[in-house]
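Journal club prep — side note

Before the paper discussion, L.F. wants everyone to see what a predicted structure for a comparable chain looks like in token form. Sequence:
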Amino acid sequence: MDQSLLVKIFGHPATLFHSDSTVVDRWLWIKSKLPITRDGEALIDIGCGTGAFTIGSALRGYKALGLSWDDRNQRVAKERSEICKADMATFEVQDVRLLDEREDLYQSFNIAICIENIEHIINDRKLFKEVALCLKPGGRLLLTAPYYFQRPVTSSDRGPFRKITEDGGHVRRGYTEAMLVELCDDSNLLVENISYCTGFFSQKITALYRLISRIHPFLAWVVILPLRILPFVFDKAIEKIFKWPGLSICMEAYKPRFN
């Protein structure tokens, strides 16, 4: 099946439904922190995958640049941005571990988003510093990562984690609030707010998706499609009543305007 067929039919929302339910959860969080703009503000998406969040940001008025090391992902992202008429979305092949080689990006962006990326990077301290350098004074960072105290969706979320090589897998279990504050302090960023996303039903649907994907990803997509309504209806209540931890920790940070 043409992976962009649904995008041709339904536009940008379809880019959020090509995988498990966590993608929608993350976009809803980003969207709530990303007001529609007519000022042509610049946004950089660090580790953009196939571009769903870059495209969504461009459709909200941002000049959005998506970076990914994967050439195939960038081709898909460009195709989908054209289908969605997201004219302000652009994509470049770039290993985000080497942002220090891209001084042309320094102090160029009002917003940086980094979604489920830093857990793949051994030197997360260096990445944080480089992302902070890409922000203009007064810029904001929107970031999500696995929550250290999550209830693992599948056994692989318990490890073992990569210690030396970066091959696309997770190199650490996740992050606590203190760990993110520490990284921000080290990069001269101020933490504005920390929250969580992807609750009980979204986690269970994701586990089911991963299980059935071993047979075929399209079959998994079909099976979970009618279940996607459950997180919208129940997850907030379950989180509140049972204190169920989110799968991801979500952070908003600010780059001071004044030294």
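L.F.'s comment for the group: The first strand starts at residue 42 and ends at 46. Keep this in mind when we get to the figures.
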